[in-house]
Inverse folding.
């Protein structure tokens, strides 16, 4: 789906069809676009009764093209679980899709917030923190475990340097829960988040919007594109951009500023060949620290640890890449996806280290670092469809390569009151004293190369759907203290895979079970000078997926059991070192339902129970924490969001209202499990009006008001023994024009 809120695909291609002209309703503007062949148009027959097509909404077919078959908040087909256009109901793992319409209705401002209404995902473990796109799935960190993807390719980060994703530039976000190493290589056992970029379409369109909101937030954005004149319908472009100037609830001159521009271009010389160029340039300025000084007893005070005289995380990033696809025949398809990322970061921060007993003076130190990160990712795929007797096969195999290089320099004044003056807590004289900039130390550099070979077969026979994949990876890591001095070299190899079996009990009803494995290399040396062995994990998952025939109502239920072994924990024999001996186990179940009930009327419901505990692990103090719960991960979460658009015959036509509830259950504040975080229930709201209901001349004009945490629930989140404050009530108003 390629337009914002209330964009509806009026045709859903049910079953194998040839390429055809398809009418698509775009915010009450009917245009004509060329639909690619439906998923499953080769020999792999559709057994489940689900949508085999893409509704004319897919930018490309599988291998990074993103979800398709979209109506409102529902999607029928996604590529993340299999790298092929597979109906969600047939994938033997839990998969959720956040569509563009949902992103628009909720006016999502950060990539982490895009999954706030998805089961299995937790985003507030570190409280308010605009620095990183940090998400936990089934209790595991997706960001640091390299589980974030863009257009099917891994987004690599390390240390302090992680590329950020602007949600306005996305068509959808797909969440695959559970290990995905059998197709993607190293990564988080919790799953992956795959962001699909907005891509050109061969239909003229445009959007401009202006937003203003709490904490001096002002933002303008545009999204325009269509076919290029004089190219006979073979070329199309898209240009998306955003500029934001905003403060934060912290005040004290803290910013949440961003500039983003994303040109894209598609060349389609024939129905069988597509080349899409994707690029982006982004500048971000946010606080380098979002923390508040903690008092004993797990309480975040009102003393902000930063200082506007020495603050700010300035990050410049860019990406260029392409997605190429050629169909030798309907049953043999080659794809190649490539991307180059560059990131440059400068961060200055101040910390309050101690407060005197009279609570009049805060002693401080500071830090300054500069990071440079470059990465390249390449994925070559070959997909084939064929029969062996009564068995229909969809096979995909490929070779991919990923490389990154990170350079870091750091400096600090610790315990130097002349360089970092104390803070007067009575006057709170933030920004009134000069703070010296530390001299940067020698550079440290880290590189990683990964090469993987994978093969997958989706076999359908009778009412059974069997998915089997396997992958062999080689990972080479080098760490340098200076550009010419090698500190350590680590080489790892791993074989991972997945096997899943589903059975079509009835059209739109498929129970399934699967087993999958994962691995994650870990940089560093133990007390014996030996390189850490990779963390490994496996998952057993079973569930049932439901798609009510003839409707856009779907649901899924799943139970899971994940064990990750050889994770880094404090070495009990020498607490100055770490050892790759710990383990964690995450068990639980999820329930999800998504429905498009009418144009502009959607519902999503998500419930998660997760119990993640340490196995064979010790705390930093050396005491055992076996059986303790991992801190900061809520045991139970519930989220639902409902929108209602009054029908054309109603006196309130043009009005859309909506609201959401997010319940965050209790969790432990520290890994010793001594104190619990309180539960929190947050409420969001939506009111919007399309002015075409007043007069057709106003077609395309829309006003929208979004409220987040509207009852201003004040709460903190503690994990690893440190507590963070969360965002208070926030309101954003939008004026939008679409054509």
């Amino acid at each position: 789906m390629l337009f914002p809120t209330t964009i509806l695909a009026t045709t859903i291609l049910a079953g194998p069809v040839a390429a055809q002209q398809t009418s698509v309703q775009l915010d009450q503007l009917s245009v004509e676009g060329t639909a690619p062949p439906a998923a499953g148009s080769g020999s792999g027959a559709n057994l489940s009764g689900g949508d085999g097509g893409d509704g004319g909404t897919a930018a490309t077919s599988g291998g990074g093209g993103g979800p398709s078959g979209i109506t409102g908040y529902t999607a029928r087909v996604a590529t993340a679980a299999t790298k092929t256009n597979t109906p969600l109901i047939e994938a033997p793992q839990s998969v959720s899709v956040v569509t563009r319409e949902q992103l628009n209705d909720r006016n999502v401002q950060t990539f982490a917030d895009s999954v706030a209404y998805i089961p299995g995902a937790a985003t507030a473990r570190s409280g308010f923190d605009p620095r990183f796109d940090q998400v936990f799935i089934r209790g595991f960190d997706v960001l640091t475990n390299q589980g974030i993807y863009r257009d099917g390719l891994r987004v690599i980060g390390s240390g302090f340097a992680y590329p950020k994703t602007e949600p306005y530039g996305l068509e959808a976000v797909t969440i695959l829960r559970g290990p995905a190493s059998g197709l993607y290589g190293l990564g988080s056992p919790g799953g992956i988040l795959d962001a699909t970029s907005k891509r050109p379409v061969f239909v003229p369109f445009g959007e401009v919007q202006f937003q203003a909101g709490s904490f001096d937030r002002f933002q303008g954005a545009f999204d325009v594109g269509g076919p290029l004149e004089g190219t006979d319908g073979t070329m199309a472009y898209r240009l998306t951009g955003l500029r934001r100037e905003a403060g934060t609830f912290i005040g004290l001159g803290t910013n949440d500023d961003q500039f983003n521009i994303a040109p894209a271009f598609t060349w389609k010389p024939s129905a069988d060949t597509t080349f899409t160029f994707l690029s982006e340039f982004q500048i971000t300025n946010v606080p380098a620290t979002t923390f508040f000084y903690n008092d004993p007893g797990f309480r975040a005070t009102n003393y902000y640890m930063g200082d506007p005289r020495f603050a700010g995380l300035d990050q410049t990033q860019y990406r260029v890449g392409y997605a190429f696809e050629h169909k030798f025949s309907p049953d043999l398809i080659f794809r190649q996806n490539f991307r180059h990322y560059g990131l440059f970061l400068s961060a200055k921060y101040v910390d309050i280290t101690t407060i005197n007993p009279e609570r009049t003076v805060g002693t401080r130190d500071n830090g300054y670092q500069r990071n440079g990160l470059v990465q390249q990712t390449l994925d070559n795929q070959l997909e084939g469809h064929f029969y062996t007797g009564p068995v229909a096969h969809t096979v995909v195999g490929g070779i991919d390569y990923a490389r990154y290089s990170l350079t870091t320099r750091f400096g600090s004044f610790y315990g130097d009151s002349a360089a970092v003056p104390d803070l007067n807590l009575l006057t709170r004289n933030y920004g009134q004293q000069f703070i010296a900039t530390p001299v940067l130390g020698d550079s440290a550099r880290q590189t990683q190369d990964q090469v993987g070979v994978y093969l997958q077969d989706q076999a359908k026979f009778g009412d059974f759907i069997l998915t089997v994949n396997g992958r062999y990876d080689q990972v080479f890591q080098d760490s340098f203290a200076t550009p010419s001095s090698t500190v350590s070299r680590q080489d790892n190899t791993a074989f991972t895979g997945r096997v899943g079996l589903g059975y079509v009990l009835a059209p739109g009803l498929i129970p399934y079970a699967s087993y999958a494995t994962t691995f994650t290399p870990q940089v560093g040396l133990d007390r014996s000078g030996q390189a850490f062995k990779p963390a490994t994990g496996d998952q057993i998952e079973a569930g049932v997926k439901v798609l009510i025939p003839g409707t856009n109502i779907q649901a899924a239920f799943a139970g899971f059991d994940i064990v990750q072994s050889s994770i880094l924990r404090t070495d009990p024999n020498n607490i100055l070192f770490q050892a790759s001996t710990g383990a964690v186990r995450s068990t639980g179940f999820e329930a999800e339902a998504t429905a498009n009930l009418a144009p502009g009327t959607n519902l999503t419901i998500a419930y998660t129970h997760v119990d993640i505990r340490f196995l064979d692990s010790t705390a930093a103090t050396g005491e055992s924490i076996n059986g303790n719960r991992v801190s900061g991960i809520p045991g139970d979460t519930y989220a639902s969001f409902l929108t209602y658009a009054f029908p054309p015959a109603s006196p309130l036509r043009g009005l859309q209202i909506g609201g959401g509830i997010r319940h965050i259950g209790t969790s432990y504040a520290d890994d010793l499990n001594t104190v619990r975080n309180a539960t929190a229930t947050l409420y969001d709201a939506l009111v919007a009006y399309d002015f075409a209901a007043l007069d057709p001349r106003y077609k395309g004009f829309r006003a929208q008001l979004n409220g987040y945490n509207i009852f201003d629930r004040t709460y903190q989140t503690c994990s690893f023994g440190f507590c963070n404050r969360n965002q208070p009530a926030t309101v954003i108003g939008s004026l939008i024009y679409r054509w």
